[in-house]
Write a structure and sequence with these properties.
With 269 residues, the protein is an alpha/beta fold. It contains nine helices and seven strands. The chain has a single domain (9-198, 235-262), classed as Rossmann fold. It has helices spanning 24-34, 46-58, 73-87, 110-138, 160-180, 198-208, 217-226, 236-247, 265-268; strands at residues 9-13, 38-43, 62-67, 92-95, 141-146, 185-192, 258-261. A seven-stranded parallel β-sheet has the order 3-2-1-4-5-6-7, sandwiched between helices. α1 (24-34) links the parallel β1 and β2. It is globular. The protein binds nicotinamide-adenine-dinucleotide (NAD). Residues 13-14, 16-18, 23-25, 43-45, 48, 69-71, 96-99, 119, 146, 148, 192, 194-195, 197-200 line the site of nicotinamide-adenine-dinucleotide.
């Protein structure tokens, strides 16, 4: 531990992972704790959050599990209260939850549109709504919203509801930054590019329309990496490192910004 987040209490939503390996939220939760933060690991899937907390505790860090749903206001109120009760404050809110359904405007169903918009926009709205009053009282806070490069760039795969919802994360974040700067609260977005996570694997399966067993993931990984100026796809740790910077006081003069963590993809896509 180098202690870049010593003394900070952090609520991470989607702190588990939808499959084996490292999701962005899971890596961020683990890295935050390694740097000295106390972490409330929130996930709809309690077992996934518990796995993250187990890793943190085995590492010598401090974390608690909270089984909660970011689209349910009562649950969000409870998770924010749980963070403040357990750790005494909520210094950083890391809004990482996001879901994806493939589909162009023509073939996206109304149900999928509503589901994606509901989850992906409430994922930042509700936790902010209930964490902000605490941060205002504290006179400080850092909010990190996970957007996506695909909120602003068409990467070729059709998932319109996801694109729109992720673009809106930036609009929300800029408004937060302007509104609460005077309260000592910063808000920034991270825009991941092509990141190798269980979620990306799921998106590939959805887009291919083929069974998982028929997809050559190795070949696909090479094709995906070739599109990126830095010639590799990202990992959940690349996203976690950017989040660590935004959570720490090293970014104390940065608010209302977007950090692309995409190997330069936004310059060519
Ligand atoms: N992987 C990529 O290539 C990529 C690219 C751009 C952006 N992102 C963004 O990164 C973020 C997270 O990615 P990840 O890799 O951690 O995904 P993940 O799917 O592995 O993890 C997300 C976690 O959120 C949880 N979750 C889902 N709905 C929830 C809800 N309503 N309430 C509480 N928890 C809920 C899931 O159970 C899961 O454990 C998302 O916002 C995603 O849009 C990922």
């Amino acid at each position: 531990m180098t202690g870049r987040l010593n003394g900070k209490s952090i609520l991470v939503t989607g702190a588990g992972s939808m499959g084996p390996g490292w999701g962005n939220g899971k890596a961020a939760a683990v890295l935050f704790a390694r740097e000295g933060a106390k972490v409330l690991a929130v996930d709809l899937n309690e077992a996934a959050a518990a796995e993250t907390v187990k890793i943190i505790r085995e590492d010598g860090g401090q974390a608690e599990v909270f089984a909660g749903n970011v689209t349910d206001e009562a649950s969000v109120k409870q998770m924010v209260a749980a963070c403040v009760d357990a750790f005494g404050s909520i210094d950083v809110l890391h809004n990482n939850v996001g879901i994806l359904k493939a589909g162009s405007p023509v073939d996206t169903t109304v149900e999928d549109w509503d589901l994606v918009m509901n989850v992906n926009t409430k994922a930042f709205f509700l936790p902010c709504k209930h964490a902000l009053p605490h941060m205002i009282k504290q006179g400080k806070g850092s909010i990190i919203n996970i957007s996506s490069i695909s909120g602003f760039r068409n990467l070729g795969a059709p998932y319109i509801a996801y694109n729109v919802s992720k673009g809106s994360a930036v609009s929300f974040t800029r408004n937060l930054a302007a509104t609460y700067a005077a309260n000592g609260i910063r808000a920034n977005s991270i825009l991941p590019g092509i990141i190798d996570t269980p979620m990306a694997r799921d998106a590939t399966i959805q887009n291919s329309g083929k069974p998982e067993s028929e997809i050559n993931f190795e070949e696909l990984a090479k094709t995906r990496a070739a599109r990126v100026p830095l010639r590799r796809t990202g990992t959940a740790w690349d996203i976690a490192n950017a989040a660590l910077f935004l959570a720490s006081d090293e970014s104390s003069y940065i608010t209302g910004s977007e950090i692309y963590v995409d190997g330069g993809l936004n310059c060519v896509a």
